[in-house]
Amino acid sequence: MKKSILFAFLLLSVPLFALEFESGATSTTSSSPTGAVPTAPASGDATVPQLIDAGDVPTAYALLKYEMRADIRFYPDGGILNKVYLGIFTRFFIGGALNVPGLVSAGPVYLDRDDAELLARLIVVKEDDQTPSIAVGWDGPAYDGAEERGLYIVMSKEFRAPLGYFQAHGGINTSNFEDGWQAGRDLRGFAALTSTFSQFTGFCEADEINNPAGPALNAGLRYFFDPISLGLEFRDLGATQGGEPSSRLLRASYSGLF
Prior knowledge:
By secondary structure, the chain is mainly beta. The chain has helices at residues 2-13, 16-26, 183-186; strands at 67-75, 79-89, 92-100, 116-125, 133-139, 150-161, 164-174, 188-197, 200-209, 216-225, 228-235, 247-257. It is 10% helix and 46% strand.
């Protein structure tokens, strides 16, 4: 079933060839120098950069065409989650993820096939002044006690507040396709708020809404020094998921053009 869903993403991306070719033929200039990762404009009225995720919650934004992003998360008990994304089109990216529990520890390391996942996102509607960005995607794997994201649909919209520009994100997801899908049991919701001030990006999010154990409330802060970012994230604040203690993770990311 997972392979069928990802194959559908690839089929849906084929019409984007024509869109990319047409837009490329009518535009001969670029907003950024070749080989450089774009940054937010310096103007005080500039909007904030578009993130592909808040913490665990995905957004409805994509990578640049030919952009590559690598992301490593170090979570409790020595686990490491690795993700790599490749921007194929301005509306579509693919990637891969590998979760390695207990890698940085003295105990044995066990992996199963669910610890490796393909990633994909297709931007169905691009954001403008009135319309939010809308995307469908597949994300995983499960790690650090959280559920697998699986198939999701998400909307993102930027708005201006007295403190500056913010982006709101919200959507639904499910990862169970094997045992007779039931919305009341298998459907999850998520929401997040992000913003960037100078070189710092902050977020807060509610994940796994409709989980019988309760939602996961997460927050974090990242510091960007092109082309690298470092972040500290706090998971399950308030221990809302069945009394499990809150945890922290470290995150490092790299972005570049290929």
